[in-house]
Design brief:
Distance between the termini: 36 Å
Largest sheet: none
Helix content: over 70%
Transmembrane segments: 12-32, 38-60, 72-95, 115-135, 147-165, 171-191, 212-229, 235-257, 293-312, 318-339
Strand content: under 5%
Number of helices: 10
Keywords: Membrane, Transmembrane, Transmembrane helix
Order of helices and strands: HHHHHHHHHH
Shape: globular
Radius of gyration: 21 Å
Number of strands: 0
InterPro entries: Cyt_c_oxase-like_su1_sf (IPR036927)
Oligomer: single chain
Amino acid sequence: MEVKLYSETLAKISFLLMAIGTILLSLAFWHFSFGPLMFIAGISIVISVSLFVANALLTAHSSNKNVIERTFIVSSVIWLLFTVLAGLTLAINLSHPFLKVSHVELLKLHAHAGLVGWFVQLIIGVSSKLLPMFMVSHHVNTKKLNFSFYTINIGLPIGIIALYLQYKIGVVFSAIMVVAGIVGYLSFLLASYKKRVKKQLDIGMKQSALSFVFLVIPLFLIFTLLLNIDFLNRLTLPLSVAYGSAIVIGFITSLVMGQTYKTLPFIVWLKVYQGKVGKVILPLPKDLYSEKLAIAQVWLFAIGFGFLLIGISTTNTTLVMVSGILLLLSVAFYNLNILKIVLHKPTNK
């Protein structure tokens, strides 16, 4: 948004409440407890998100740049608030049932509001600004992003209402709208890639590109699940798990890991070496982490994720276990690189 954050104090309070709420919620889920612990956790998270949303909206209000990227971010934080309020409602409904719709169906509503409304829209808003910048792509038409915004934000509410009312045609129509919006976004990224000045992609951008390949998987799976094909009926549960895993692990996690190598080294580099630029020979931001470790991390992640999808879809527990080990190793390598970046000490010639 190219303006100063409205309040760092609000951000710190929001972070603290989210950290406390997440730990308490994890404990409640672990013990399958729907009593006071879950309510305290839920309220803590709702307050945290409310402060975050207020901070984001006030920051957006102070910006004069009325661009589609900002619109996506504003929309995403509103969907986030809806998601956590829906989650708190589900928690109350578990211990004191008052909603007539099946809890499983309500969980689908909650999950898609979070995955598509919050995660996907936030990613579109941020990445449509950052990725062309990292690839040095100029004059990319944003009309496809406008199309994505409207199709996603028309299709998603229709899908949520249809899920609540158990109206199948509405759910299918919603899926078509949302998928069309995501395809429009991917088309925008492809156009940015074709217009890039920087031909050679670094490891961070390669993993980011891989995440968008993974995104195509749930776009196919959603229609496989909605069409109720007879011979696939017995695979509905594993395919549903594969669908969620492809979004959360394959797309979101992989993209965040890839973009970490593009943003965090620069942030740390700027903090460590500010005031020294132009005076001495300095390392580059990419020198703050081990590229060999990053390459090994990406390969382990890609292979592990592939095994995970195959293992889940075929209900092969051995493959799932192997994938878990590979993904754990990948995340360990990732964390080693993160520590290397964060703990970097000044060096110059």
